[in-house]
Amino acid sequence: MIYADYNGSSPLLPEVSEYLTKRIHSHLFANPNAIHSMGQKINMGIEKCREMISQVVGCHPDQIIFNSGSSEGIANIFHSILNLKDQTKKKIIISPIEHAAVMNAALYYKEEWAYELIFTPITEDGVIDTKKVEELILKNQTELAMICIMSANNESGVIQPIDKIVPLAQKFNIPFFSDTTQTIGKHAFHFEKSGVDYAVVSSHKLGALVGAGFIIAKNPVTIKSLVFGGGQERGLRGGTQNYLGIETMAIALKIFSERTSQLLQLKLARENFEQEIKKLCPEVVIFGEKADRLAGTTLLSFPGIHGQAVQIELESHDIFATTSAACSDNQPETSKVLLSMGVPDDIGRGVIRLSLSFSQGQKEYSSLAHALKSAYTKLSKIKSY
Amino acid sequence: MIYADYNGSSPLLPEVSEYLTKRIHSHLFANPNAIHSMGQKINMGIEKCREMISQVVGCHPDQIIFNSGSSEGIANIFHSILNLKDQTKKKIIISPIEHAAVMNAALYYKEEWAYELIFTPITEDGVIDTKKVEELILKNQTELAMICIMSANNESGVIQPIDKIVPLAQKFNIPFFSDTTQTIGKHAFHFEKSGVDYAVVSSHKLGALVGAGFIIAKNPVTIKSLVFGGGQERGLRGGTQNYLGIETMAIALKIFSERTSQLLQLKLARENFEQEIKKLCPEVVIFGEKADRLAGTTLLSFPGIHGQAVQIELESHDIFATTSAACSDNQPETSKVLLSMGVPDDIGRGVIRLSLSFSQGQKEYSSLAHALKSAYTKLSKIKSY
Fold this sequence. Notes:
Helix content of chain A: 25-40%
Strand order of the largest sheet of chain A: 2-8-7-6-5-3-4
Structural class of chain A: alpha/beta
Distance between the termini of chain A: 30 Å
Radius of gyration of chain A: 21 Å
Number of strands of chain A: 12
CATH class of the largest domain in chain A: Alpha Beta
Number of domains of chain A: 2
Order of helices and strands of chain A: EHHEHEHEHEHEHEEHHEEHEHHEH
Strand content of chain A: 5-15%
Shape of chain A: globular
Largest interface: A-B, 75 and 75 residues
Number of helices of chain A: 13
CATH architecture of the largest domain in chain A: 3-Layer(aba) Sandwich
Oligomer: homodimer
């Protein structure tokens, strides 16, 4: 079996499974806010995890606010910046390739709070056009409430050059939020060096237990509670902390930090794989081919062959991949990300996403190439559209 | 070891631990929204759990909206009812003994949205005064945006007679939210029969994995997204579903439903225990003594002996209890719940909460009585205030 949907969700890392197996039988379960020693032990564990995580992601422990994952983190960041009675700046620069969790938050503030969304142009390689974004910032700088550009796209894997934009945002004191769900724990990322004001993480993308995550905030007091609860996380995010989620995130991020060197091998294996597929089918489209991408992500299309047909063929080879982002998998039309890149519908409908992790490499890509070859040979005879 | 802090958080039920041990090694981890068969299997599992849970809590499966727990559920319900531009009704009837997660949400809407909070009177037994609440409803009915009364108090365990209030709320179409965090999975509760419009659940109070929960909404379309995400939970709560949390909640609630008969034994054991403590120390105060309470909750005070001193003594007997709600444990003053009941400070500071589960009974209460006797004998000689 090859799991090739890491951008959708990661299975538990073996180290996390091993930890959990023991942890479940430790009988140490309690409310981390209780005064008895069981509660205090768990609470100290949370703080140790915060420290461990802060070292991997390059921030101060106090800049981490644990929550239930990126979707909550995104909603909370928008709420913190935009749901303010004295917010007079009413424009948001946002990339059109943001994940639905970001786009839906932005649309809510457009519709209910009258914010204006200014979309950044995207090159055909799926990269934000930094020159044009700079122009947009200069033109609107006194009116910008925030800038919102993801660090890597979940569909194409294309890494966005936010480092080129951040200095200008900083110059004008415009809050910069980058959805880092696809980079933290998967790609080199250092919060402090990135210069962004807000970043988010989901545990299930890291190989930790599903249902946890955190915000990293340069200035945590700017976070306005979305979930009130009983004053947990220094009053910034209420609710009993998901300590098992937090413990497993610390383990997963530590494992990642010890294995970042494997990312280069993964990338080389992916590049070889893509060359092989191009030999097999010269008309194949690899989205963001010339751009810097996440080491293990390939978004490709065999024009005229429906992505879902390829996905089903791959599954008959025990390979699990998707046609697009999980949230839009059930929609047969071309994704908004691809539309932003100017992809026509006959190519957009043929899309299949293969996303691997640092624990995979040459072996998995050989199997993927073999299975894709078989799928292509079969399906190209009976083109579906 | 006796764990006596079930109102704070429940350890994993043995059946949940057993399930998880196998589940972790099943290798079935994926995004439930992915189109491949792993995602679909998990998704079908979620729907099966929704069905199982709906049977235990007495609602339609579609009325369940999974989230990260009660604190989020509470914030989401307040947001749904109160964060509306066309909400012209600006008064809320709320009990003063609500959990901090509810009270902090209410205070936010008071401060930022100009809602007026009308507090219900509380009897000295910790019960809402239903006659006076009825008067308040009649007096303010055209201006009431919501009524908010918990089903059982987390500190005293006192069950609130919401069934006496609900018909009047229904008559005037006033949304009724009851914080059921301490009752669902711990006490008989049937959503439909209760007549309330909204209820909430936290997984970690049930003996399931920490970090999950759900809202039950009579009319789910009245829920306004707080966490946008990618359209999960029929667009009502975005974010990849915490499927392991959901699976364990279904198991925990099923176990509870099979063992509700044990609650009566637990209650009898608690009553015997309280009689024994009263013989030991006739001046002991048992809060809500004459009221209907959760089967396993006793909130008591030895006047003049600090609750924390008792807690530490209990811990030396390997008994884990708290002085109050987890969230306010670090505050040495009398809790707001006790102040509402008219408890003076010399009694309020002596409080210790013992909260057991349906899996405990006579044996645990005998050990508790023994340990409390020893603590009282020791501490009454050196009264701390």
